C-alpha cells in the first residue's frame, strides 16, 4: 500500500500550550537526509512514539530504532493537554467488577512506569501523584458513584467517595455533588517528560529525526517510509500518529480527529488559590460527555479545558488542520471555568491553545499489530483520555513485538476492532447530531 500525507507538515497548528510556553529554547534533532535502514521505525514523537522508543531500546538494546516526527517532539496532543494522568480506559464501563479491576490495574501500571522512569533517571519533570477527583454534577449520579466505589473498593480498587461536603474540604466547585477520589492518579508536564527522555534515548542509540514527516508507507516484509529528503527501510513500523493516522491511510473509518481547546490562567498566588477554593489534589474532571477538566502547573497556573460542545471542533473532511479562529471555543471553555470557579472573574487568562485528539465511535482505543507481514504496530484512538494509555502503549507494543503479549490480551484496548464511522457528508451530519443530543449527557464510564 502506498499512501500520501504530503501536506501534513503545514497542517499541524503552531499555537503554544502552557506546557511549551515556559520552557527553555528547544533545538530540534536534525531532519532525515538520505536513506536509513533500521529494525523498527516509529512514526510520531508524542507519548506513544517516545514510550515505544523507550521500552524497545531498554528491552532490546541490540535492535536499531528510529523515530520520525513531522515537526518537533510533543508537537501533538502530548504537549497540549490538561496534564491529568488518569486511570481507566475511556468508553469502558466499570459495571463488571472483575473487568474493571483488570483495567484499573493496567492503567495504574502505566502511571507506575512513568513514575519509575522519572525517579530512576532523576528527570527534571513536574509529576505529582496526590490523586484526582472525578466530580458529579447530578445528585443521582453521585449516589450511584458512591455505590460503585463501595463495590470496586471491595475488589481492591483503591477509590474513595467524597460527599459534597468532604469534597469542599479539597476543592470548592460550584454545582459539584460529590466526587470519586482516585489516589493513584496524578498530573504530568508532558513537554518536560518527553524532552527529558530525549538525551537518554539518544544515548541508547535511538535515531531521532525531527521535522521529518512521513509522506508514504510502502508495506512489505521490509517497509519503506518516504520522507521529503530520504527514505527509511524497516522490518517493522509503529504508527504513533494518533489523530493524524488516517492521513497515512490507516484507520480512516475508525477515527475522527477533534480539535480540543484549552486555557490556562496567569500564575496564581496562595491567596488567590485559597479564595478560589482549590486546596488539594492534582486536578479534577467531571462526569459529562463533553468532559471539563482542570489541573495545576508548577508555577501555579490553572489549566482548564472542555465543558461544552463548542470546546471541541470537528472540521469537515476530518481535517487535522485547525485553521479558523478558535475564539468561540475559548469563550465556551472560559464560561465553563467561571461556572465552576465563580470567584475567578478577575483572573487573567494567559494561555489558550488547540490540540487534536483521535476519537473512536466507542471511545475505546486500540493497540495491536496488522498487515500481511504482521509488522505494522499501532496504538491509536485515545479519545481525549490518553496520557496514561499512550505512555503504557510503548510497553504493550514492545511486548507484542517480542511475542510476550499474553498479559494484555484480556484488556479492552488489545486489538480492539474499531466501530465503523461513515465517510462525509454523513460523518459531519452525524457528529453534529450526536453532539447536540449528548451535550449535557453523562459520560459512559466510572
Ligand atoms: C486540549 C487537550 C487536553 C487533553 N487533556 C488530557 C488529559 O488531561 N488527560 C488525558 O489523559 N489525556 C488528555 N488529552 C489527550 C492526550 O493528550 C492524548 O491522548 C495523547 O497525548 C496522545 O498521544 P500520542 O503520542 O498518541 O499522540 P500525539 O501526541 O498527537 O502525537 C502524534 C505525533 O505524531 C506526529 N505525526 C503525525 N503525522 C506524522 C507523520 N506523517 N510523520 C511523522 N510524524 C507525524 C505529530 O506531529 C505528533 O507529534 C488531551 C488532549 C488535548 C488536545
Word description of this protein:
Mean pLDDT is 93; it is low at 1-13. It is built from 11 helices and 20 strands. Strands 5, 6, 7, 13, 14, 15, 16, 17 and 18 form a 9-stranded mixed beta sheet that branches. Strands 1, 2, 9, 10, 11, 12, 19 and 20 form an 8-stranded mixed beta sheet that branches. A 3-stranded antiparallel beta sheet has the order 3-8-4. It is globular. By secondary structure, the protein is α+β, with helices and mostly antiparallel strands. Helix 3 links the parallel strand 1 and strand 2. Bound molecules: flavin-adenine dinucleotide (FAD). Flavin-adenine dinucleotide binds at residues 5, 8, 12, 43-49, 68-71, 75-78, 80-84, 86, 213-214, 240-244, 248, 260, 262, 293, 305, 355, 357, 382, 384-388, 390.
List keywords for this structure.
446 residues; disordered N terminus; nine-stranded mixed sheet; alpha+beta; 2 domains; FAD/NAD(P)-binding domain; 20 strands; binds flavin-adenine dinucleotide; D-Amino Acid Oxidase, Chain A, domain 2; 11 helices; eight-stranded mixed sheet
Give the helices and strands, then pairings:
Layout: H1 8-11, H2 18-21, E1 36-43, H3 47-59, E2 65-68, E3 84-85, H4 97-120, E4 127-128, E5 132-135, H5 139-154, E6 160-163, H6 164-170, E7 178-182, E8 186-188, H7 190-203, E9 207-209, E10 216-218, E11 223-227, E12 230-239, E13 256-265, H8 270-276, E14 283-286, E15 292-296, E16 302-306, E17 312-313, H9 327-340, E18 349-359, E19 366-370, E20 376-380, H10 387-402, H11 426-438
Parallel strand pairs: 1-2, 1-12, 2-9, 5-14, 12-20
Antiparallel strand pairs: 3-8, 4-8, 5-7, 6-7, 10-11, 11-12, 13-16, 13-17, 13-18, 14-15, 15-16, 19-20
Helix pairs in contact: 3-7, 3-10, 4-10
Bound molecules: flavin-adenine dinucleotide (FAD).
